[in-house]
Amino acid sequence: MTVPRIARRISRVEQVLSPRPDSGDGIYTLEEMCRSAWRQDSVKFREIAEHTMAALLIPQFEREDALTADGGSRNHLRSSHQGHALGRLSR
User: What is the span of the domain harbouring residue 69?
Assistant: First the structure.
């Protein structure tokens, strides 16, 4: 595999995993990382999170999806949940 190809793959992975592209500090909450995985594939997220604390976030994500589908503002919900108690991770 060539270096440019590796760089492209890394870039794609960063795009998928980056829930906040505007964040320059490289620190994400566990909730934000779970939300990113939920948006990619909610069925697979349910399977992975089934017996973990991440499963506690599923009802919240479902409510947010329902509000978004009804014209609610995700930005309002996002700002009210920043700094969630589940912790922070750095990439």
Answer: 3-90
